[in-house]
Every structure is written in structure tokens, then in C-alpha cells.
Amino acid sequence: MSDPASRDSNIRERKRSLAWITAASATHLELGLTAEQRICLYRECLAVAQEHSDEKVIGLCTSALNTLDDHIMSDFRKSTTGAECEDKEDDMTTYMILAIGYAHLEKEEYDDVILNSKRCLAMAQASGEKVVEMKAYEMLGDAHLKKEEYDDAISYGTKCLAIAQASGKKVVEMKAYMMLGDAHLKKEEYDDAISYGTKCLAIAQESGHKVAEMNAYKTLLNAHFEKEEYDNIISYSKKYLPIVQEFGIKVNEMNAYKILAVAHMDNQEYDDSISYSKKCLAIAQESGNKTLEMFAYMMLGNAHLKKEEYDNIISYSTKYLTIAQACGEKVVEMKAYMMLGVSHLKKEEYDDVISYGTKCLNIAQESGEKEEEMNAYIMLGNAHSKKEEYDDAHSFFTEAETIARELEDNHKVSHLGIRINEIYEIVGVSEGHSELSSLLKTFLGSVQKNESLFHSFFRFLHYKENDKYEEAISCLEDFMAHGKNSINEDEYRELLWTCNLNISKLHVLLKEYDKGIQYQQEALDVARKQGSKSKQAMSHFILGKVYYKLKQFENAEKPLKESLRCYELIFVGLKQNDRFKIAFIDKYKETFKLLLKVLIERNKKEEALVLSDQYRAKALKDLLVSSYGMKKEQTADEDLQYADVQSLVSSSDYTLLFYSTCFDELYTFVVEAGNELGFSVQHFEYCDTCLDKLVDETFEDMKVRQVIHCEDRSLDNMHYSEENKNPKEDELTQLLIQQREKRLSEQCRSTCVCRGNPSENCDESSLTSGLEKLYQKLINNIKFLIKQDEMVIIPEGPLCRLPFAALRDPDTGQYLSETKRIRMAPSIASLKFLQEYPVEHHSRNEALIIGGGSVDPGKVDGVKTEFIPLEGAEEEAKGIANMLGVQPLLSANATKPVVIKRLQEGASVVHIAAHGNLEKATIVLAPSSEIRKLKRIPDEEDYMLTMADVQQTHVRAQLVVLSCCESGRGEIKAEGVVGMCRAFLASGARAVVGSLWKINDKATCEFMVKFYKYLKDGKSASTSLNLTMKDMRRTPQYSEPKYWAPFFLMGDDVTIQFKD
């Protein structure tokens, strides 16, 4: 056993330690002790401090004792001695442990709080001291609440509450309610939080405890805020604010303004929301609270957005964007970009929308915020759609739709489906209301208040399909009436245009043309207010169509021109999306063709010719860009005037024939120097598809597909195994092809029934071949207008692949090439461009002769491909090179780098006899020696000469001869030949010779030798080609058209001066 002295020393040290902590805590903590107990405690502490000469603790205890009531202290001193306090040491120790717990609570040492409180709790329960037990529960509840252990906090708070209620301790009861309210709030059990908060508030108000009242309001505000019960928020906030202002607690005041701003926003009380947001902002700026400053700016932006005050939105959004960037708050920065994008969208500043939308999208993708990513895609889609850049809009809407499906957001999926379908309808892919109806049903069905719209719309569809047009009109009128009051303004404007458009069409079907025009004008007004070029184009077109139907051609002309102007602007927005352009061109073409008919009806033939050429030149350029990746050539086709056409022919010795198909008519324009514009109209029973078949009939007549002894220089017909094919073709392209084939097939069936249109001089039934039939249609009725020896023909559609040289006059039996020299041109604008180009621009260097190309395997579309050696092409190249006195580039020597270098240096004549891929407009050369040394299969870019490559070299050749099998066919889209010949002209060549089909290798070689002989003798290209055809006809084995008719000259009629 230890000696008494040692034991007393330990006791003293313990008391000293307790005195330190108790004195430090009791000066500012509520321990729930009576005054007598507190005095006893402080005197005990003071005694220990004095014993150890601890001046700090002596000062604390003295200060605490001096704060007690003098009367109570006096009475206590009379009745209580230090010895009695000594007897109560164990009781005081319990309070000291409790005090230690409070000290740890102040220091946020919650595990220590829990440890001490449980010790105190055990001692209080053992001694039956309910007040201390209650305080221990209270402290335990507070500690677990701070540790976010809400179930424990609720458990201890409930026990504390029970003792407080039993003992009538109202203040502790109030605190227990507060603790329970906060715990349930954190657990998102908002009804319980409100219940306890309300009870806490009642006691606080009854007892005049302002701090507790303030805290109770705070709990109630937060709970109602989460429940979005904004009226309650506003009510409590008005009571809460005076208290926090009285106490000067700026943080709470600021938070109150924040909550009020949100509440008034939800109640659509935007001015009040703005007012409270500004008050929140002022305190946030004063206190340097950047988070709430950002929030206030955000709320101000939202409120002004609702009020459609877009400049204010941009101002506030820019401010909180700046703070977000400085603080590194990426999510807030993303929201700021979204708000700025929406504002600029409303202001129709679409480039700004795209800029902010892109920044928003980047952050959303980096942070994995899928919903914000979806919204950014939607915003970008809307901006590009408004700019009528439908390729980009379709891409963004499709991306958004994919995310909406991932998020299972059916409303967004339906909405985006409608937007995508709108684009399909604009570019001509959609087949009408069927898909839209399904999507609209889902979209409207998800909103209960739009049930009446849903029923009106589908009644309209039902009546329309059953030819009950008056009932359908009534449904649409109901649709507009209900929509005005049940959907937002933007959606209503969309519906208003659609309804007016369809009502107009229905009145036209009822032959109520005045009403049809009236409603279409209203639709046009809506489209103008929206700034929608596509809708304006459609409304203008329908107005023009109605006026045309009424034979009011003067009234029809203006809206059709406006429609065409709008469509041209939209066409630019399709950018590189060739599949959209293919579909859209049919809608554009319909307007153009109807305007063409109107101009002809009004006897404006010169204007009709210029319009046709502008349309054709523009379409050709766009397809060259989209198909071959070439840059758009600069020509003045949009400024072409008929005076330019007259000037063109007046300085040349040729007759210009310009063909244009227009619905069921064929227009032929004949332009010749010194004469008025010749014009012929034929009711041509064949639509483009049927005309295409008639051209094929000429091929059958000439048996061009039965040519033997011909090496295949075309890659287009190369066979690839099924395993190398793309397993899934582009869905939209397939849809386009199916719809186009269906439409053309229907047109063919409806128009190909021959109604009989014999010429005055010939019974069409007596014509024995397609060549005679086409001569009768294309030449016979205008041949009296052709005075010159040379014809320059500008064909359209299927006529582009027609061998005009082989057309045969049924009266004389002569081929057209026997009486006329023939040259082709893509458009009048291209002829004018060539004529105006400086002669010195084109090279006079020696000829470049290329033969054979690669003999090594290479990749084609990613697949290893063996190239068949072209012995005939090499022999052809050698023969021509020998005749011209130059060294040819053959097989492995014809590398891509060498050929490009020679093209850049310039050559008067470029002759290419090699493999060609006409679909891509590429020519097979050989890879460089450096590539071959790598011992890998060359990729296409290593050896394929593309038209983009050619364009970059600025060819400058006077003549290019493409002796690739079928090198002149290219891609035909009814706007003109889009193939290598057109591409070489666009790249700088002055003239190009091509072929329409395969012929015998020996025949090709003989044809080329004869052609170059005439060229070398100083004959022009047109004359040389014509003489060569005549020579071939005189050669018994090659007298048939299939051997000489495929060759044609496109471009200028050049004369080459070869060097000796």
C-alpha cells in the first residue's frame, strides 16, 4: 500500500487537473447546476489552485465566483463550509466529467465527448441523478449529430427529451427538439424535421429564447425548402429575418435571402426573387463569400431569363462565370456557359451559342455529367438548326438522343425524335406524318394538360386520310385554339406554322384557293418571325404552286424565287453531308423546276436558261466538294447574265445546245451568234428514270457490254469477298436510297406509258434503235437552228452519259458525228470561265505520259488488293510517248510523288492509262521507293492519286486524256457528269478527253494513236476527235459505234503546239 502522503499528493494533483478544466469551462458553459453547487465547485477549484499557486486558475475561479448573485453567495457562505464541499467530492466529480465533455465538444473532439459523456451517464444512472443523465444524453446526441451519425443522435435526443419532459426542464426539452429536428433533416425525413422544429419554436417563443427561435426557423426553412413548399418558406423567412438582423448574424441573413429568392422564383414572382437575390449578393460581396456570390448571380440570371431580359442574364452569367473560373469551380462554370448559351439562343446570336455550348459540352464530358452533356448537345443542335446547318444539327441531336436513352428520359427521347424528324422532313428524307405522329403522341401524352391537343391532332390525321378535308380543317383550328393557352410560346409558334400550312393545303384540295392563299400567307408570317428559312421556303413554294395552278404566272414567279433563295441558304448549311444534299436537292429541284416552267410560260426564256445554268453549276461544285474532298472552285456562275452567254458564242464558232428536263417536258435552248435564242419544248413522256433506261437501251443496241479483249482498268467492279464488306451500312443512307428508288419507280410507272408524240416527219414506231429514238427527241426538232459545224452540248441527268456522237438520223442514216463536231461542257459558267482564263496560264511543257501504275498489292478500303498488270495500258503509253518524243512513266516508275512533281512543273498534255476508281475519282500509281523499303502493304494515300491531290498541283495542262476504263462515267445525280473529267477541269485543265465504256485494247490503242497524230499535225482537240471517229468508222473491224462512240471531249477546244 502507498503511504498517506503519497496518496494525498495524488488526490491533490487530480483535483488540480479537474480544477483547471472545470474553471476553464464553467466560465462560459451551462452545466445545469444550482448556484450553490456552482459556488461549491468553483471554491474547490480555487482551493486547489491556491495550493499550487496557479495564478491563471485562481483568476478564472475568482472571476466566475464574482459573477454569481451576491445574496446567494452570502447565504451559501453562511450555510456551507469548505468541509461540506469536501464531503460532496464524488458528486462534484460527476459534474467535472460533464464539464470535460463540454470542453471536448467545444474543441470538436467528438470521440472524447462520447467517451466522457458515457462515463458521466453511467455514474448519473448509478446515483439516480436525472439532471446529469439528461445532460449526458444531450451531449451524446450533439456529438453523434456532429459526427453525422444521425440514428444515434435521434436515439440519445429522444432519451434526453423524455427526462426533460418528465422533469419539466423546458429549455432542455427545447434543445432536444432542436437536435431531433436537425437529425431528421439530415436524414431527409422532412416531415419529422418540421414536426420537431415546430415544437422547438413553440417553446422558444414561449420562453423568449431568441437564439433557439432563430435556429428553429432555420430548421423549418431548410425542411420546407427541400419539400419545395415555397409559401411556407416565405412565411417563416419573414419571421426569421428580423431575428437574425437583430443579432447581426450576416451569414444567416444572407442564407435567408437566398432561400427567399428561390421561393419567389418558384412562385413565378420574379421581381421579388431579383430583390432578395440582390440582398444576398450584397452581403456575400461584403463578407467575401464567393460561393454565395456565385449563387446570387445565378439566381439573378435565372429570374431575368424568366422575364426574357437577356442582356441582364448575360451580364450576371458573365460575372459568376468569372468567379467560377477563378475558384476552379468547373460545374458552376459549366452552368454559366449553359446560361450564356441559352441567352444568346434567345437573342438569335447563334455563333455565340455554339461557342458557349461547346465549352459547356467539354466540361460536361470531362466531369461525366451526362445530363448536362445531353443539354449541351441539345443547345448546339438548336443553334445549328436555327442557322439551318442541318448536318451539324442532326449530329448533335443524335448524340443527345443517345444519352437520353441511357438516362431513360423518355420525354427528352420523344422531343429529340421530333427534332430529328423535322430535319429529315426539311432535307426530304421523311415520308410524312407517320413517324411524327408516333413521336408526337408520346410527347403530348406525357403532359396531361395537352390531352386536348393530342385528340385534336389525331382527329385531323384521321379526317385527312379519309379525304374529309372540312372536318380536318376544324380539328386544326381547335388544335390552335387549345395550344395557345396550354403550351409555351415557342412551342405554340411551331404548331401555328404547321397548322396554317396544313389548313392552306386542305383549302386548296377543296379548291378554295383564296382561303388556301390566305392561310399560307399567315404561315409565311409566322416563319418570318421565327427566322426559319426552311419554313419560309416551303410556304413560298406552296404559294407559287397555288398561283401556278390558277395560271397566275406573274404572281407565282415572286414566291418561287423567294423559295429558291431560301433553299440556297439552307443548302449551304448542309456542309459536307452528301446524303442530306442528295435528298435535299430533290426539294430544291422541285422549286427550281416549277420556277423554270413559270418563266417559260411568261416567255422569259433567257432568264430561264441562266437560271438553269446557275442551278446546274452550283450543284456540280457542291458535289465535287462533297464527293472528292476538293475545294470549291471560284466561278462567277451566280452573276451570269444572258448578255454573257451571247458574248460567249459571238466570239466562238459553235452552236450551244442546252438541255433541261422539267417534269414531263424537255426544254432545249439553242444559242448561236447573231441569232435569237432558239427554244424547243417537247412533252417528254419519260421521267429521268425512264430516260435513264432509254440510254441503257442505246448501250444494248450498240452491244457495248459484249466487248472482248479488254483489260479492266476500273477498280469499281473489283470483287470483294463478303467478309470484307461492311456488315452494317449507314442506316440513313439506306433509308434515302429506298425512298428515292420507291419515288422514282412510282414516277416511272405513272409517266412511262407512251401517249404517243410522233414528230411531224417520222413515225416513232418505225424507229429501230434507241439511238434513232433519242436523235428524234433531242436533235431532229431543232436541227434547222444549228448553223455551225461544231456543237457544244450541255446535257442534264441521264443525258450526261449518252454518246451524242452515235445518235443516228433515221431519215439519212447518218450519225450526228458525221455532220457535226461535238464537244461537251458541264455548264455555261464553266465555258465562260475557261474562255476568260489567261492563255499563258496553261503549260507548254512536254507531255506527261503515264502507263500501267502499281504492280504491287496495296490496300483498297483497308483490304489487301492485287492489281492486274495492264500490259495494254503500257503499250498504249509507249506508243503515244514515242510519237510525241517523250519518256513515259511506266509501272513502278510512275510513283505518286514523281507524278505530283511533274504535274506541278506543268505539262501541255497529260495522258493517263492506268487503273481508276471512278466512285472515288482516284488513279492507281506506284508507291515511292521509300514506302516499298518499309516492306508493308501500302495504304491508299501512299499510291492513290486523288482529285484533291490533283487540285493542289494546279494542273495547268491544256489537255488531259483519261484512258481509264469507263473514265468518263463518274457519279450521275441528274445535275451533270460528276467524275474525273469534271474534277480535272475544276483542277485547272483546259480540256479533258474521257470514255463512257470499255472497248477492245487494240481498238483503244489505234484510236489514241490516230487522235494524237491529228493533234500533232496541229488540229484542234475537237477536230482531232471527230476525224479519229471517222477513221475508225472506215476501219472494218472497228466501224461499229461501240468502238468509236464512247470517247468525248469536255471543256475548251484546245490546239496543242508540240515541241519538235
UniProtKB/TrEMBL annotation:
SMART domains tied to this protein: TPR (SM00028)
> Can the keyword Membrane be found in this entry's annotation?
no
**Where in this chain does the record put each CHAT domain?**
771-1052
Instruction: Give me the segments passing through the membrane.
Output: none
Q: What is the lineage of its organism?
A: Eukaryota, Metazoa, Cnidaria, Anthozoa, Hexacorallia
Protein name in UniProt: Tetratricopeptide repeat protein 28-like
Q: Where is the Anaphase-promoting complex subunit domain?
A: 40-69
Which sections of the protein are TPR repeats?
Answer: 134-167, 174-207, 374-407
What top-level branch of life does the organism fall under?
Eukaryota
Q: Which gene encodes it?
A: LOC116308564
Q: Translocase: present as a keyword of the record?
A: no
Q: Which InterPro entries match?
A: Apc5_dom (IPR026000), CHAT_dom (IPR024983), TPR-like_helical_dom_sf (IPR011990), TPR_rpt (IPR019734)
Taxonomic source organism? Actinia tenebrosa (Australian red waratah sea anemone)
Q: Which UniProt keywords apply?
A: TPR repeat
